[in-house]
Amino acid sequence: MSSPTFIHLRVHTEYSLLEGAMRLKKLCGMVTDMDMPAVAVTDTNNLFCALEFSEYSKGAGVQPIIGCQVSVAYHTAEPGEKEKAPAPVVLLAQNETGYEHLMKLNSCLYVDKHDGIPKVTVEELERYSGGLICLTGGALGPIGQMITDNHPAQARALLERFKAIYPNRLYVELQRHPGEDGGYTEAERLTERPFVEWAYDLGLPLVATNDVYFPKADMYEAHDALICIAEGAYVDQVEPRRRLTPQHYFKSPAEMAALFADLPEAIENTVEIAKRCAFKAYKRAPILPKFADDEVEELRKQAWEGLDKRLAVIQPAGTREEYEERLKFELGIIEQMGFPGYFLIVADFIKWSKDNNIPVGPGRGSGAGSLVAYVLTITDLDPLRYSLLFERFLNPERVSMPDFDIDFCMDRREETIQYVQKKYGRDKVGQIITFGALLSKAAVRDIGRVLQMPYGQVDRLSKLIPVEGVKPVSIKQALEDEPKLREEARNEEVVDRLLTYGQQVEGLLRNASTHAAGVVIADRPTDELVPLYQDPRSDMPATQFNMKWVEQAGLVKFDFLGLKTLTVIQSAMNLIFKSGRPLHVAADGTELYQPPEGGENEINLIPLDDAATYKLYSDAKTVAVFQVESSGMMQALRQMKPTCIEDVVALVALYRPGPMENIPTYCDVKHGRKELESVHPTIDHILAETQGIIVYQEQVMQIAQVMAGYSLGGADLLRRAMGKKIKEAMDAERPKFEEGAAKNGVDKKKASEVFDLLEKFANYGFNKSHAAAYAVVSYQTGWLKANHPVEFMAGVMNCDIHLTDKLSIYAEEVKRGLEIEIVPPCVNRSLATFDVVDQNLVYALGALKNVGVEAMQLIVNARLEGSDAPGGKPFVTLYDFARRVDLKKVGKRPLEMLARAGAFDQLDSNRRRVFDSLEQLVQYSAAIHEQKASSQVSLFGDAGEDLPEPRLSPVGDWVASERLMEEQKAIGFYLSGHPLDDYAGALRRKKIATLAEAQEKAEAEGAALVKVGVLVSGFRPMKSGKGTRYFRMNISDSTGQLAGIAMFPRKGEYEPTYEIFEKHDKVVISLEGRFEDGQFDPMIRSVAPMETVVADAGGAGLKIYCDDAGAVTQVNELLTRVTQEAKQPPRGAVSFCLMPPDYPNEVDIDIPQPFVITPEIKGAIKSFDGVVMVEDL
Predict the structure, then answer these.
(1) 24-215+250-276 has which fold?
(2) Is the domain covering 981-1093 a CATH 2.40.50 domain?
(3) Residue 86 · residue 31 · CB < 8 Å
(4) Closest CA to 44 of 96, 103, 104, 106
(5) DSSP per residue over 254-314, as a string?
(6) Alpha-carbon distance 1140 to 723, whole Å?
(7) Mean pLDDT throughout 356-366?
(8) For the segment 274-328, what is each residue's pLDDT rounded down to a tens digit?
(9) Given 1.10.150, 2.40.128, 3.30.70, 2.60.120, which CATH number is that of 800-969?
């Protein structure tokens, strides 16, 4: 490498979120291509990639310069003066002290900045100045800004102050970003001369930088779109928005030398600075706080005491000696590896959680294989009972940190984290940052917006990008696979522009947030080890390094996972205990009620041999049951018909790509349809519980131990090597395995066959500890559903109270699967959350869309206030409701949803009148509550009695179809009826089946192709792994619904089919349904608009029941007008049955002429005032 001539000292990577577009790999590649020995990364207000950059550049042979562009609050506003925006300076770490100070300053940027604007003060720069080189920030820096604002004296004074703060370490930064006219930006023109003059006057060196944001000039337009995404601007807004130019790219040394030919020292100083910055961020060994003076002794004490407590209440899986021997062994390994403190820290916050009735999961991951964890109550799974291996968790032959993943109740995990903060100190505990990327669909939507394209067009383009798995394919891949997308790009320049920009920015980091579970605990303030970031929405700072790099910086991660299922279990049990019923009655008559504060979680005390639970599993009635609610799992359950917890453990492990092909063999052996095949007599006992199949990683380890004499630690290393398919390791291990097997009397051929078998299954095998822990949680939810179905489903729905798609599925399960009545939302019967009354499920007010549980609780509180009745004092009228509930606090939008859902039906059955009168009712309520608040209450009357009741809107109610539509808007699905109800007769006459009938036919015949009338929702185009285009959608009718149903159009039918689904939501489909192993497997074969199919399916006519003679005239006028306008001939007869209240008898009226009758007309007639019922003739 020749002598360097220029080093870039101001580069923004993609970690300058939605600002920088330089990827680290690209950066290091360009540096080496340009023969530069070093480069600085100076992301805006962060050190997100400091350690990653150091490690990556080392591999690329580049010297990293750790820096940061820091926003400085340089201006103190006078009274009445507007505060100036912070301006940037560049700080570069010379050494470890400088890096530590840079971390401190980065923490100052965010922590406790209540206005959400990252900035540091000049005083903070002064406090943490050691070991840092400062570049003044160029024309846009604080000194440049003062010059631009015509305050040269203040600018000079600030420069002199910076010189004092950074003696011999301050460089006056110059930038030249030439425009089309050859000149520089206006700010650069205004500031360069004073910069140079003052530098010479004060003896300060100059330095040239190019403020780099993207790799090459041709990315400028795409990068400008990226800036617009961040700023909520449009690309056409040029002034005064744009501050960057096409020149903000990664220029070569030659280009920079030419640009500053008149100031060569400014170029030379970049190399001088690089030589002065010899520091590289480094990795550290794990650092933990000290839990006790003698952690070894403390762990032993707690472990032996815990063993006594556990053995006193469980039915042991072995002798006490076996438990003691296992405990001694594990303690020895933990002490040898130096991890007693880690176990004590985890045990402490879990014990605190349990003592405070915060539900904690029985275990997760390999940690459930530790007896020490079990006796410390970190886990609730006896590893001897389930034959779990400690070495799978902590291998003495492979030193690595243990890692307990802990599940907590979703609603209360924050309380445990707060306890940890209080115990160790808030400054020693932090969350972990995580980054979101700009994926293809989001890139198209965001760039379409900044290009000001119509929303509908952008939405259509985004939907043309297929999804593989859970992620959309790249724009490049979508263009290759989707002809319609290519056609759009060819036909319209703006679409081509969008997709071009999108390809340049997709994959860049978009935003920072905090990791859902990860928390670090340190022995010192965390900002001494890593820089900190703070999300404005969070009270707790987070590390600026993500999960991977924070651990390499020496911080130990603890996972506080929020598991919704634990919240479901607790919610269900609360409803059971609220009813006064026991959770469980044992065979001897012992009743299990809620234990005292801090007792064993009662769900852990239920029996694991409940016949009703295993019948529920066998019948696959497992909607909402943890781990087994997917259609594939239900199919596997019907095959397996579990009879013990070991079956559930095996199924959790087997139900994954690869191993699931062994489920039929497992089931056949279990049910005696196939003989259990012996692998070898020495290891058959290891495979007995899994019907002769290797299911678990632990079995691989045990086989290596028993057959070939491996230690369990060595067997774990073998398992890892096999799982990762490391050929060199396999070649070395095979002869070792064969030799060990020979010592146990196994011949070489058989040993080699077993080795091949292990090699195959090591890649597929599942962690048994994790499977067992999650099988127990699954069993607990299954037990609750089998024994307390209403309370369980209420608990499930409470945990998904804002997810209407899921509530729709659960409501269907409650009504049809469990045959439990759902009481519709009602201000007099419902709570804010789902409730159980008389073993019926009462729909939650808080489950309505756009209402919020808190707002609904105001209504419930008003109803309960001053009443000892269980449901409170019912509201009598709308005026009574407005007097007792402060409707202004509830909000008009939530009240509209209540009206749409029929929650006021007991107060006024005319939903439209209620809806249209809400403004008057809110004003009336506000006036009453203002009087109450100001104590303007008569001694002899209630507040508001003197206020006149407002007049309600004089409107007729919504027609039946409108009521359903409005109800669906509020609830999110159809609860009291279905939009296809009016089509039922026409569909039946065309011999078109219901979903329930299609499923019954497939079940009876094994397979069936049936025409079904359905309502379509959630329609979306997809692409298979092989590139085949297809559709997925949800379909429903009044008998049920199916989610995620696929349709693969025949060749040439993709576009016409797409158009049908785009224009029609009521369709008739040809549904091919197969019923195999008890599982209904549907697929759509063809589709047609329902209105076309039933156009000639009018019935013989209608019989219309009315309680108002005026309705006869209205209906007759409607039918006459429609018939005159219709294209098809009239065929339907119409008769009326008039039954007014003041008539002694019913009066039948036959209309002589025929009419055109359709399902839509029938629905319209049902909505007329005075029409009681409409029947098909």
Answers:
(1) TIM Barrel (3.20.20)
(2) yes
(3) no
(4) 106
(5) HHHHHHTTT-HHHHHHHHHHHHH----------B----STTHHHHHHHHHHHHHHHHHHHS
(6) 80
(7) 92
(8) 999 989 998 999 999 999 999 999 999 999 999 999 999 888 999 999 999 999 9
(9) 1.10.150
